[in-house]
Design goal:
217 residues; alpha+beta; six-stranded antiparallel beta sheet; globular
């Protein structure tokens, strides 16, 4: 288990804000932490080391330096994908599935999702296109939540991390509460916190220029 979080948009003291969000999910990854911050995006990671214990730190960038990823989960077919990518001349610095994942996305774009076998929730910042991709595995094993707060797009593995973002006003989502009281669970994309949503299993989200779209893969 690892934890991911971040936001798109300019924020005062962005590193401090991101660190606060990361601290809220420190229990998801006690081994390491890391962040990538530029003038448009901030993404953070709490790591529980499973594969490549020494060199698998995140965020991790693609071979061309354009993509920056934070990833929670495991890609089961990463060795096969790595061998395939090496035929395209892509070289690797680690033995981690994270590096294979980010370079698979570099090589194939959205179609990379059709190649993945595993459980995952990840966020990828495309520096050149100034866009963010979120994705969640087909069975929804790994969680991904998101919200728009005062013109910023915010995401995390757990809601408590989003609650740490400045400007969010905590309100109960009555619609989700009614679903839970009726059925003992809520099948909605909405959560109990108004304005915070869960990315559904087998879905991806693309955010760019202040707008986002969701679709299945």
């Amino acid at each position: 288990m690892c934890g991911i979080c971040g936001f798109i948009g300019e924020v005062e003291n962005s590193k401090a804000v991101l660190k606060r969000m990361m601290d809220k999910i420190a229990h998801r990854g006690a081994d390491d932490e890391g962040m990538y911050v530029d003038e448009h995006a901030a993404i953070g990671h709490r790591r529980l080391s499973i594969i490549d214990l020494e060199d698998g730190q995140q965020p991790m960038e693609s071979a061309d330096g354009n993509l920056h990823i934070v990833f929670n989960g495991e890609i089961y077919d990463y060795k096969e994908l790595r061998a395939e990518l090496e035929t395209f001349g892509i070289s690797f610095c680690t033995h981690s599935d994270t590096e294979v994942l980010v370079n698979t996305l570099q090589q194939y774009g959205e179609k990379a999702l059709d190649k993945l076998r595993g459980m995952f929730g990840f966020a990828v910042w495309n520096e050149q296109k100034q866009s963010l991709m979120l994705a969640r595995d087909f069975f929804g094993i790994k969680p991904v939540y998101y919200a728009e707060i005062d013109g910023h797009f915010v995401f995390a593995s757990e809601i408590k991390s989003i609650l740490a973002f400045p400007g969010y006003e905590r309100k109960v989502n009555q619609k989700a509460l009614e679903q839970y009281l009726s059925f003992q669970y809520s099948p909605l994309e909405e959560t109990f916190f108004k304005g915070i949503y869960k990315l559904m299993p087998g879905h991806m989200l693309l955010y760019k220029n202040g707008n986002y779209e969701k679709k299945t893969y």
